Amino acid sequence: xxxxxxLVFLCALAAVVFAVPAQEKRVHRQADLSDHAHDxxxxxxxxxxxxxxxxxxxxxxxxxxxxxxxxxxxxxDRIDTDKDGYINHSELHYWIKHRQRRYIQDNVNKHWKxxxxxxxxxxxxxxxxxxxxxxxxxxxxxxxxxxDTYKSMLARDERRFKAADRDGDGIATREEFTAFLHPEExxxxxxxxxxxxxxxxxxxxxxxxxxxxxxxxxxxPEEMESEPDWVQTExxxxxxxxxxxxxxxxxxxxxxxxxxxxxxxHADNEAKHLIHETDTDKDEKITKKEVLAxxxxxxxxxxxxxxxxxxxRHDEL
Length: 317
Ligand SMILES: *[C@@H]1O[C@H](CO)[C@@H](O)[C@H](O)[C@H]1NC(C)=O
Ligand SMILES: *[C@@H]1O[C@H](CO)[C@@H](O)[C@H](O)[C@H]1NC(C)=O
Prior knowledge:
Layout: H1 2-14, H2 45-52, H3 54-61, H4 65-79, H5 89-115, E1 123-124, H6 125-137, H7 144-164, E2 171-172, H8 174-181, H9 190-201, E3 209-210, H10 211-216, H11 229-242, E4 249-250, H12 252-259, H13 266-278, H14 288-293, H15 295-298, H16 306-316
Antiparallel strand pairs: 1-2, 3-4
Bound molecules: 2-acetamido-2-deoxy-beta-D-glucopyranose (NAG) (2 copies).
């Protein structure tokens, strides 16, 4: 049960957050680069976490300004992959994207050993299945109704596992297991995410979602209750936005547009932002000198977080 819960927890992290409106609960958004608001007039926490990753940003906050600048200079060298002395947009974009993946990767790593029972640094479908469902599928667990529920969850997991397992060997590497747990981050997982949504909503299994099924997924009328406004709004949305070809149903392409919105690339925006703010000679690429001149925007240190640290120290005393 603990394992099942931790899996649900991981998925919840990847999805939006808690208390989302009913019509949003199906939407798989890619995680933003930071939980902080991006408002540079109130501090650079967003930029720090985007540029360094959440964990690393915390480490930098403990450094003196000198140490912080030293480490930043080394990072600049790593970002400049072609070693031409400039960081351009694609180099910075790649770097930021990779930090973000690492945060997700850290989540996966935290739970890895729960599944990798034989510690071969791979998770086979059998291992995953035994760990997650073993008890529920065994003889001793004889609640028939629940057994059916677990069987259908198992079938769904198996399909998702196969989609994530790109080389089809039945064994997930860390990268493949990451796609299994965070499908919204991977293009090749789109179809399976759409299929899972379809399975849930398309009650009569005709391969498309009617208005009734769409609303039924988010709202069950109570006796004597008049239909809430938000349900009427959702009905309108169905016709106006979701049903693009206006045939009265959502096919899988329309479901995909709804649950996997091709949205802003946060890493792309952040790379543009950092270059824009740093590029004093306006040549669209930045040098180590330009980065270091704006070091407090890229990374933190005890100095940039001085006020915050002061209160923390006070509390600890
Ligand atoms: C940016 O640098 C990379 C090499 O790291 C290079 O492949 C790419 O073409 C450059 N982009 C531009 C717009 O100059
Ligand atoms: C999974 O459980 C079955 C039945 O208990 C067992 O035969 C099998 O060896 C287990 N597989 C793994 C990989 O743990």
